[in-house]
User: Fold these one by one.
Assistant:
Number 1:
Amino acid sequence: MTRRVRLALFGVAACGLAALLLWSITGLPKFGDYHGAYGKILNKRAPQERQTSNVVAAVVFDYRGFDTMGEELILFAAVMGVAMLLREPREEEAPVPEDPVRSDALRAFGVSFAGATLVLGLWIVAHGYVTPGGGFQGGVVLASALLLLWAAGSYRAYRGASPKALLDLAEGAGAGGYVVIGLIALAADGVFLQNLIGGGTAGQLLSGGSIPLLNWATAIEVAAAFLLLFGEFLEEYIVPLHGRRNT
Amino acid sequence: MVPLQATITILVALGALAVALTSDLVRLVIVSSAYTLLLVVLFVVLQAPDVALSMLVVGTIGYPLVLFVAIRRDRADD
């Protein structure tokens, strides 16, 4: 096939696809026009039943808390796999490689943003069941705040702020904590992950029963998992670049 | 609401085109990161802030970082 034939073929196919897409877009329901029965019931009942103003959080950490536990364990296993693959060829006791950023402007900009991002992450976690956000979102924002320490500072600064031993502990404690909260509910109430501590006022920090606890367990697990992941990849990146130096 | 949705949808489409037309790997990572940022705006416009927040960090920071490391390693091995 010559270039011309191929272009002609692509032209016909693209026009057909565009026509089909336009046709389907005109048939879409109106914005906000929603017919899911389950979603409607939840929107109506969750704020009173679970004292949360963020129905998404009520679904993720309560009505479908078991699914979230599975997702958390998937992340846990995936990060453990990455760590096992990447850590094995490296020497554990080797000195931390150096790669400081020299530009003062970049350092000042990055470090100030790291602080602001850290506060934002904590805020998103803390208000996860009140406003949009939650443990997963806040956890990744927290991890990215520390990643800025590498981008604008050095790998040493990143490693210093997130020692591997602490991350390993936090990741396990977050994932395990979620399961333990579920087991406590099982022992107390006979239902795994049943919402334990009722009460509180929807829209306030003290609300949602055990949703805040699961929210924080998830945040700790996710932040630690992403920091571990970033750390392993950064080390892969920096070691061939600068080599290890004794300091 | 509709003009806003249309604008951002067109911007996302243009962004996707830019990603498809970029051949240099390092540039591709930057372009795809910017494309993700457009997607984040799309999610916010479609009133899905929870999804937008995760996408913001995973798509614009986490994913590019992993790609950069992979590219760097690939070039170091040559």
Number 2:
Amino acid sequence: MVGETEQQPVAGANRLVQAFRLVRALLRHQKRTFFIAVAGAAVFAACTVGSAIVVRHIIDDLIEPRFKEGEVAPSTVAAVLGLLILLGFVRAAGVVVRRTWAGRTTWGVTERLSAEVIDRLVEQPAPWHRKQTTGDLITRAGVDAEAATAVLSPLPFASGVVVLVFLSSVWLLVTDIPLGLAAVCVFPLLIALNVGYQRRVDRYYNTAQDELGRLSSAVHESFEGVAVVKSFGAEHRETERLSLIAGRLREARLGAVRLRSIFEALLDGIPNVVNIALLVGGAFRVRSGDMTVGELTSFIYLFTLLVFPLRLIGFTLSELPHSLAGWTRIRSLLDQPVEPDPVLTLQRGGDNAVHVRDLHYSHDGEREVLTGVTAEIDAGRTVAVVGATGSGKTTLLHLIAGLVPPDRGSVTVPESGAEIVFQEAFLLAGTVRDNITLGADVPGDAVELALQVAEADFVHQLPQGLDTEIGERGVGLSGGQRQRLALTRALVRRPAVLLLDDTTSALDPATEAKVIANLKAALTSTTVVAVASRPSTIALADDVLYLVDGEVVAHGLHDELMADVPAYRQLIEAFEHDRAALDAELRGDDA
Amino acid sequence: MSEPVSRWSAAETIGKGVRAAPALRIGFVTTLFLALMGAAGRVVTPILVQQAIDRGLSPSGVSVDTVVRLGIIAFFVIVLATWAQRTAVYRLGRRSEEALYGLRVRLFEHIHRLSIADHSEERKGALVARVTSDVETLAQFFQWGGLAWLLDGTLMLLVAGVMLAYDWVLALVAFVVAAPLAFVLQRVQRHLVKAYDASREKNAAVMTQISEVVAGAETLRAYRAGPRYARRVKGTSHERSKSFIRAGTIGAFLFPSGEVFGVFTVSAVVVSGLLRGPDSGLTAGAMVGFLFLTYRFLEPIAEFTEVLDQTQTAVAGMRRVLGVLEIPIGPPEPEVPMRLPEGGLAVTVDRVDFSYRSRGDVDEPPVLVDVNVHIPAGQQVAVVGETGSGKTTLGRLVARLADPVAGSVLIGGVPLTRVSNGDLRSRLTVVPQEPFLFEGTIAANLLFARPNLQRADLVKAVEVLDLGDWLDTLPDGLDTEVGERGAQMSAGERQLVALIRASLVDPDVLVLDEATSSVDALTEVRLARALERLASGRTTIAIAHRLSTAARADRVLVLDHGRLVEDGTHTELVQRGGTYARMYDAWVTATSAG
């Protein structure tokens, strides 16, 4: 869970240094907007202290004279209240500026960070991606970028609070030293209370967040497996299992509630007690003539105003660990060097032929998947790559496509390279047309032609034809339909070499046969290398390339291989075995 | 979800919600009273200031004694109020957490008991959301909005009361000048909610696009479309920033508008107070106290508008949660159950119709229409048909994962509606098409069928199905972790585990939904072997995707668009030259070379 790793306690000073570095790094390109926000916060702070001064004047210059001497000049009233209203507007403007520019800062930085991560993601080639987990990468580009910058939104206000505490202290001390000292001493107490509370309550909130995550995945699992749950009559057991997690969530939340109830009450209670103390102490100062009633009252007024802003400091500090964790994760991704593009390892030849020479490939340098594959595939031929699971068929195709680099050996492809159609058709959210062109400039009739060859005419029956939205929020397509779209995607590019990785496996036999016949008819000059498993598909190829454990055992006509290579014959028969055995059985039954 | 729910008013929803989560009601009056006591702490300072100014700091001389005495009284009031507030906050928090826990447990139980028809793919996400995010909306509400109602609501009431007591004219002036604030805030709030909704949508779009770039990395690479799609994500991300900044800017005006109204209200109060003067009975202390009260009164208004919005969201969440509880639970338990007879069980499907309930009002097209079959005890039947022919559904009805819309299913001559769930589950077992494994070990997944079995029983079951050699190939045998949803195992291995799991129940009727995914040759052999051993001697209904399975069965049922169109042995049906014969020909072509 994310929350558990985030809360590494860091020693105080070290933490501040880290925080400073983080903020400096984040603000590198957004200094101006950030300082505007801070300026807004400072204006707010100054006006807050200013409003306390006005309150003093309201009491000393308006209320006291009117109620104790009977008269007050209208011009004084206008002046004092005018000042009050002016300060109110300026203070409000300060808040607007602070909040608006704080938002601009935060989102400006988030956008920049996300962009850097995205650029890096598409820059890194396939081998790098295979070493990562999908969920982790998605988290980094999305959630981590937001987490890293989360500390920026309360930061201007927190800076404003520092100014506020400073100005208030100055004003309190200037007005009355003994009483001011007493009040100023309470600030650190309140700040410590806030920070201490936030740190302790975050522990509960993080636990609760973790438990909520666990509950979510358990609920997902349990509901997804509901057929199993029902068929074993385990409804009650499952409810108990989930309730246990929900119970732990409740306990964590209750811990937070217990702390919070005390904190909220103290945060109201302490300033109130201080107010009483100020009033009692103030009575002595007023009696000795050192202070006016207005000054005393404005003391209390200012104190009340400070309680909420002081909370912000604790809040900002609680964002810090999350932001640091998010930032660290993003940095670790951006600091990885961009790996060389495997496409550059391909050699370019003159015609449409594919030459594979002594090709070696291993996953992580350990298990060799290809152990010296050599094959000459002449221009315009259709070759079926046949072999048992794990014989290296898909890897061979990925090497020819230049998706992964060979450990040794070479691949020669035509100038224009090769187009590959993957086993799993990956469709992106967007229209059918977008999914076919993927942004390339393809004329409409080329799309039509490719659709016909791939037997993908079904797109015209979709609600908006080629403009129908598919993917996550659009029309759902069957596996066979997806495969045919993926094939169309390759065909519109008029490839010199077409690599098919078992791309018709989800089609019914009749449609598959049609697609293959279409391909043969349409792609006369294209070299096709196709991983195939159905005997009917294999039979349609010109040649067969037979792989065993990463080596080419035979390359030739299907019939030749059937006659000369016993292992190949056995493999093909295994595909047919099921039916053959059945035929034998049924014949036995009939007899 | 069920339609009537969406017509419930907010009050109705809250009423039903409290009934569904009765913990909320316990001691609520006490909590409210404590909150009111707690609010008293917040009016102590203004009253104290007033009293001190009028009685202790009067022009006739400063009486420190009076101020000290007042201070001591105020101190005790504050201690009491602080305690009361803490207790009120804690009580509300505890009750709401207990209530939400109870609600979740009810939801788990209820959803697990819903018919499989209510668990369709498109609704699964919604059901998960009900117990996670919707209940979370309520939790958020109780943590912030609910608390604000409790504390700020009582505070505003109390402050308004004290203001009226001091001077009703000034109080009215304050209320009238401040009143438009609530209106302004509500309007800003409405824009704000819309702006944030738009922002959240943009955020979701960014997330989706990021995951596409990651999950489709190889495709984008192969088609050199990476930079273009990166630009697309960055474009959406820029729109997201703009949208959030816009929402932030609207929000930036929310708090300051309270500020502006505040200074006008205070000015109006001061002017009216000065005009009224001491002759009206108003004192300097009361004036000062009144200023403080005015600030206190205005403070929570801005928060309240946010709370109102949060309350609406919470009510909507509650409505959705209650909507799930309104769905009648799946095949209901019989009131007077009949025991299944001992020994082998025949299966009878009698004039059965079925259709899945859809998301809207309109029912989906029928899945099964007037299906009639009698399967004698011990017979091995294969059901075939194209995707969408209704064969999987037929299996589900026999297993009573749902009840037919019309007609009935009988087992051993007893209608399924009269069989208790416990009895049925010990005599009939389903092996689903894509066997679902829970995260954990193989042993844990096997024990899911019969939690109180011993390890020796599991080992024996593996031997009976002749799968010992397979188990030996696994790193930790029975203790091998299967991964999330069984992802560490191949599709074939998941099926093997599911077969062993089913065998532990030792059922008399076996409903077997064959997998479509292809498996390697060796696993195929093991599967066929295990299946044969598992099926022997039991009434077996295999939903067949491989025609080899159908051909080996005693009898083949062919479904087409929900109707039973052919019924006979493999040989008979092939000779008849109908639907089955056509399917068989296509299969023969696909599996032979040339």
Number 3:
Amino acid sequence: MKLTKYLLIIPTLILLLALTLYPTAFAYFLALHEITVQTFRNPTFVGLDNFIEISFNREFWYAIGFTTLFAFVVTPIEMGLGLLISLLLDRPLSGKRIIITLILTPLAIAPALFAVMMKLMFNEFVGLVPYILNSLGFHYSFFRDFPSSFLTLIITDIIQWTPFVFIITYSGLQALPREPYEAALIDGAGSKEIFRYITIPLLKPLLLIVFVLRLMDAFKTFDTVYIMTGGGPGFSTTTASVMIYRASFIHGNFGLAAAATIFLLFIASVASTVGIRVLSKTGMV
Amino acid sequence: MIPFMSVLLMPIFFIALTSFKEYGAIMSGIMFPTNPTLENYFNVLYAPGFRFIDYLVNSIIIAVSSTLGCVLISFPTAYSMARFKTGGGTFSGYILSLRLLPPIIFALPLFILYQSAGLLDTHIGLILIYIVFNLPLTILVLKSFINDIPIELEEAALIDGCSRLKIMTKIVFPLAMPGLVAVSILTFLACWNEYLFALIMTAKKAATVNVAASLFVTAYAIKYGEIAASVMIAMLPPLVFMFLVQRNLVRGLTLGAVKGP
């Protein structure tokens, strides 16, 4: 029995070792060497040079800052909207199943494909948004400057992921106990007070889970940015993932990209440790 | 409700409309197609030199094999973790952190390792990556389903002289079936929709339909109708699967933490 329980996890362990731990160790090796696509066969040891270069690399820190900003902008909006929609639907309504199914559709669509769609939506020649703006008398072309590019990314992320917040908070609302509400009604509480003092506290663990998952996922953003703006104009909407992708696979500077990878690993590990701490309070781990 | 719904569904509606429009209608900014046409779909599927059907087949092979592999590997692990607390908090913490960390962290080292192992642009290479990066979801969700199965059933079977292996396959496996179905569909969705690794690790032979559709945008920037049609085709399978999983969706999305309605 003692043996069995370890035998059962061996396949998982092997895969995790081979495809997550080993690559992480290998990233350290790469980061300590001067290694590019050209010098791929014979890397030269350069010590901490790559780390020092990344520490003073403006683009890297800009990307980290931009990604953090993006995550902290979209997450609260999505949580507010998702919660609002689930409150609106938390009542007997005809055709509710169909409405919920329709709301969930963006969740099933690949972020990459959704980004393609949104890119067409905002396209200045054939897109729906410029078309509507035009008919209202505004002439505006998106993706030309930072504010409009940032805005399209935010809108895309919100449309795609608000359903995620919605379905979780909605099922949370459905599962709430009825008694506190009845007691509050008898005590003469208004609907605002009930929401503030009963619904929100009862939903708190759930909201925390959604917040951590959404924040971490927004921090990973690659597909949407890579396809819609390519990180531009200039460098202005480059997320950490897009920056490392470019350094690795476009510029082919493996050593430098590996150093950036390790910095990102540290930053994300701190964030995910905090996240796991929060989640373990809700009984998830 | 109506304003929310229309904003949420507008992009899909717009893409669907565009995919049935003729080239001229798209470029002259007509919103509703007057002569609906299937030309765009035909062009995407049968255009010479653009092997969209091959990419569809790749996506199916990779998503189905990854899902099967992932569920087969994670079920025993989830059972071991649920019943014996194997690995304790460290192990489940590591697994959960894999779900939270940005996958780009593993992209470069995996790419170079794959290059030396000859796994680049192969089905099996992408399948292995998809199995690993979906293990957190399947293990944690299955664990929560197995925790719900009364342990008395297993104890009774143990007393009757049943082996652990038999308990797992004959008692727990069938009882965890709803969970297995739910995680299978969610894993299939995740694999079908994955983009980063598909973009990095595949080129011609094993490219998935997402990569093909997104390359369409850059390569044929002006062929909006074809782009829309390829997006429509690529998103159809996950949409169908999404409707099947709705009942257990919440449990999957929160990695088993929330039971759902």
Number 4:
Amino acid sequence: MDPYIYNIPAALVGAYRGRRVIVRSHDPAELAPILAEKNKENLCCLQLLSLTGDIGALLLGKASVPLDLVMSSPYSDYPQLYDLAPLLSRYPVRVTIPVVPGFSKAVRLSSSLNFPVKLEVTQPDSNLVQEMAEVLAYYLHHSTVSQPIEFFHSLLMAFIEEEPLNLWTIQEEDPALFRYVTDQGGETVSPRLAPLDEGQNPSAFLETLITKLLGEKGECTTCEYLKTCRGYFKWPRKDYACESVKALLKTVKEATDELRQDLSAYQKTSGEDRP
Amino acid sequence: MTGTHLSLILLPTLSCNADCDYCFEVKTNDSLTLDRFALLLEKVLAYMNEQAIQKLTIYWQGGEVMMLPPEWYEQAHDVIQEAAVAKDREIDNALQTNLIGYNNKWNRILFQMFGNSLGSSLDYPNLHRKLPGGSPHEFTAIWHRNFQVAKEAGIDIGVISIPNPETFKVGAERFYSYFVDDLGITNFQINTPFPGGPITETKKTYPLETDQLTKFLLDLADIWFKNGYRNGVKVGPFDELIKYFIEGDAQLPCIWRDNCVNELVSIDPNGNVAQCDCWVTSYPEFRFGNIFSLNSFSNLLKNSEARQRLQSRPRFLIQQEDCLECDYLAICHGGCPIRTYSNTGNLFTKDPYCHTYKSLFSYMEQHAAKLAQSRISGYPKAKKSFLSDIKR
């Protein structure tokens, strides 16, 4: 069986039949008929790329297929989330939010409406890292947050369970799992990486990147988060200084330790073996 | 409605046997005929079918629901059961009555249609609930008598209570003791009053003074935690708030949902449709339309400008007020539209009881933390990641 999940434009559904797909479109009305199809076992997820369209067609269905709402301008578009909240009673829904100035408003409202959130991050500057740090604190310590904010959530879980999960996998950009098919039909790993150099094999992308980074004796060679990060923040610019994002990872790691202590204290006070 | 469950606040009559000072409804002698009820239900079920909504809960309110005889409800129940089977939909019923017209003749339909339970309302001290030309004392005496008869018949009764300045004077301890110890009520909730409908001297005093209201509610919560929380006494909204802060999920009242427009609608006996009972009876300019005048209930809801205005309220609040910065946005969303509009004349501002709500949320959050004994519930550990859905 084809090992990859293909993120394809809705227009290419026919061409990828029989393969596992994430289908994306700007138009809710284009996604609704795909949901109505009887055989959906290869449909892994739908992605709605525009949040201003009429979602009426989607509200007529109900399915276990996840729906990913991808924001493009979180600072200005966040009030629209109120109109999208009814989708939660119909599908497993997530909001994907690009880390751009002011994105935290969209995170706060998404979370307050009970949407899981995925942050789409590239190489954030210091101001954006500060905003990410505020969102991380909100995720970790705010009592009304009851849904994941990624990548923080999966990273926290991976640290707790001591799983070898890395950011490429969490962010759904792992070349071993995902392929992104451009509107023109070309294949790459993720929109963040498109286009790859001509002739470059997507499957070899990650290993090639790590080999290069370690070969150049940069900060990755001594980074305690290398196994977790796998050079995620060194793309596309290898000279990106990771100090500030490492502080974020450190905060997640410290929260793991704190949580372990809490769990331990809870077990002692409750007399139970496991919480 | 956009979810998979529709709540319908149905007013089968606008006639009432009481004359309460703070009533927000404009009363008339209009009542719904059974034929019109059958037609109304048919239209609602057709809408549910179009929108793939499986479940309907009808909240029967008035006027006063018991101004119609029990036989009327028995026939309405037959209509409901037949329609539910024919349209393959689940329909539940809930009744809200002032109990003044209650007698044992109601017991059969209360059992058959309402699961042997009902909601009523009483204040302590009672200053404003009265019979026409009567006193609050007379109202309370009849209520007590009928409450006891219903209780002895095994009917489960929940009570809504609205505080007033005298409530603050007697204090939370006596208030709690009145309902739980004197009357044996184990399920009651506190609602805040608002000046909807025709203005009266009582309504001119609203909103209640928030510092006094807040102190009363926090004192009452203290007493509930001490005496009732672990002894099967439910006090709304405390019980659901504490559940929310411990378990991360709860059935919070409609005033704190993200957008009540997505969840409920109200219809009066003339077929007028609006957001809830106060809007439909007292604010004609906020009606969505008339269900008997249009073939499609879907189109009525979809095309109503009044409904669109209400639906847009949270979007405005999040940009114009300080709600986005509030720690409790997730459980408030700017509060109740009718409480806001009736107090301020402006739909696009936050609930006038904001300060009280925040204090109550904060208190419940802190108390939940103590109850949980650790911060485990503060981490969203129990939730699976979206990635696990995708990777299937």
